[in-house]
Amino acid sequence: LLPALVKADPEALAAQLAASITLGVGQFCTNPGLLFILEDATTDKLVHALTEALKKAAAGVMLNSSICRSYYTNRTHLKGIAGVKALLEGEDAFDSC
C-alpha cells in the first residue's frame, strides 16, 4: 500500500480492504493474503481501522472441511512463529470443520 493512499483516507481504505479480505469467507483467489505497508505516522491509524472493520465481519461457512481444517492448522502455525503478532483472532471453530 503506497503511503499517499494510506495517508489520504485510512478509514476508507480499511473498509475497502476488509470487504476484499472477507469476500467469500476469504476463499476467493483474489482476496489479499498479505499487505505491505511502509511504516509512517498513518500506519497505526490504518491498522486500527482495519482491525475494527474486520471485527464487524460476520462468520461464514467455508467451502469444505479440508479448507476449514487447513485454515485453523496454519493459523496456529503462524502464531507460533517468533515476531508474529495476531491483531485480531476470531473464535476457534476447528471442532466444527
From TrEMBL:
<dbReference type="InterPro" id="IPR016161">
    <property type="entry name" value="Ald_DH/histidinol_DH"/>
</dbReference>
<dbReference type="InterPro" id="IPR016163">
    <property type="entry name" value="Ald_DH_C"/>
</dbReference>
<protein>
    <submittedName>
        <fullName>Aldehyde dehydrogenase (NADP(+))</fullName>
    </submittedName>
</protein>
